[in-house]
Specification:
Blueprint (H helix, E strand, L loop, with lengths): L1 E5 L3 E8 L12 E7 L1 H12 L3 E8 H13 L7 E3 L4 E8 L4 E6 L7 H16 L3 E5 L10 H11 L4 E4 L2 H7 L6 E2 L3 H8 L4 H10 L4 E5 L5 E5 L2 E6 L11 H15 L3 H16 L9 H8 L3 E4 L6
Helix pairs in contact: 1-8, 3-4, 4-5, 5-6, 6-7, 8-9, 9-10
The structure holds adenosine-5'-triphosphate and magnesium ion.
Length: 309
């Protein structure tokens, strides 16, 4: 079982409108509501791949209950811990006429020290039943900046592989606990290290404790630096669609491949194929299965040191 942790889980509302009028009223043509947050997206993709997964994290109030109902409806095993404050909502206004999306993101519930202590206590037995742990996304207010470091310490003590998809201070604070793999995107890599050259930024993160760094570079694919070697994996073509959640699909493929013991080149090919197929699907957490199968054969994976970049 792959345990995903979404500390700032959300109820994602999507409004479809035909022309968004800023500063005036706009009628909503279509409403969709589902559980969101990066770890939840990773679990959705794992479930679609047929990989056993459980969702944990923090959920509170009526919004938390609504998002947990939706997890159940999606068939995702839910081990969320309850907090008193309201979980956050995100609102995506999809302007169908202009083909443009505007996002409004709430900060998330204020988590008390007692609630955080209760969560870390419940995390240990959950992790004990997992083959790997995925820690994804931002921290809600009140969770300490070393929150991911604390969870890593618990999981790594049990010898579990841990994949971390975070940025900034929570990522930097977690590195001394030696995450097995981190997956920053290009912006996160530069912002977190202050280094604009990806290979140099990756080297810094590894020197600070990351085992493997798999940097995602949008339509350019992945740059992977691991203890076993370095590779560049690229999709055969740019896919048009919704890139939100493509990184989460990459993380799902990486977690599933690590648990299955795949060699890096095969694992990276799957991660690029799956994340590109996720761009072709409209909602975060889903992918185009036919395209995934076709792309698996077409992703180029080359040792990095042989590419003049
Ligand atoms: N337009 C595209 N065409 C083909 N593949 C893409 C495209 N955009 C993204 N991908 C694939 O998805 C992976 C992840 O994309 P990206 O680097 O944008 O992640 P991200 O910013 O972390 O996304 P998110 O956090 O929204 O899930 C890329 O490494 C690549 O394999
Ligand atoms: Mg990302």
């Amino acid at each position: 079982m792959i345990l995903t942790v979404t500390l700032n889980a959300a109820l994602d509302l999507t409004y479809g409108v035909d022309g968004l009028r800023v500063g005036a009223s706009t009628r909503v043509a279509e409403v969709a509501e589902r559980a969101g947050g990066k770890g939840v997206n990773v679990s959705r993709v794992l479930r679609a791949l047929g990989v056993d997964t459980t969702v944990t994290g923090l959920a509170g109030g009526a919004t938390g209950r609504a998002l947990r109902r939706e997890l159940a409806a999606a068939g995702l095993p839910d081990a969320m811990a309850e907090v008193a404050a309201e979980s956050r909502r995100t609102v995506a206004v999809v302007d169908r006429r202009a083909d443009r999306t505007t996002m409004l993101l709430e900060p998330g519930p204020q988590v008390t020290p007692a609630e955080w202590a209760r969560f870390t206590g419940s995390f240990a037995p959950l992790a004990a039943g997992a083959d790997a742990v995925v820690l994804s996304g931002s921290l809600p207010p009140g969770v300490p900046a070393d929150g991911y470091a604390q969870l890593l310490r618990i999981a790594r003590r049990r010898g579990l592989p841990v994949l971390l998809d975070a940025e900034g201070e929570p990522l930097l604070a977690a590195l001394p606990e030696r995450p097995t793999l981190i997956k920053p995107n290009a912006d996160e890599l530069a912002a977190t290290t202050g280094e604009s050259d990806p290979p140099a930024a990756i080297a810094r993160l590894r020197a600070a404790g990351a085992g493997s760094v798999i940097a995602s570079l949008g339509a350019e694919g992945l740059l992977a630096v691991t203890p076993e070697g370095s590779w560049r994996a690229r999709p055969p073509a740019r896919i048009t669609g919704n890139p939100t959640g493509a990184g989460d699909a990459a993380v799902a493929a990486l977690a599933a491949g690590l648990v299955a013991g795949l060699p890096w080149p095969a694992l990276l090919a799957r991660a690029v194929a799956l994340s590109a197929a996720a761009v072709a699907a409209p909602l975060a957490g889903s992918y185009d299965a036919g395209l995934y199968r076709r792309l698996c054969e077409q992703v180029a994976v080359l040792p990095f040191d042989r590419i003049p970049d």
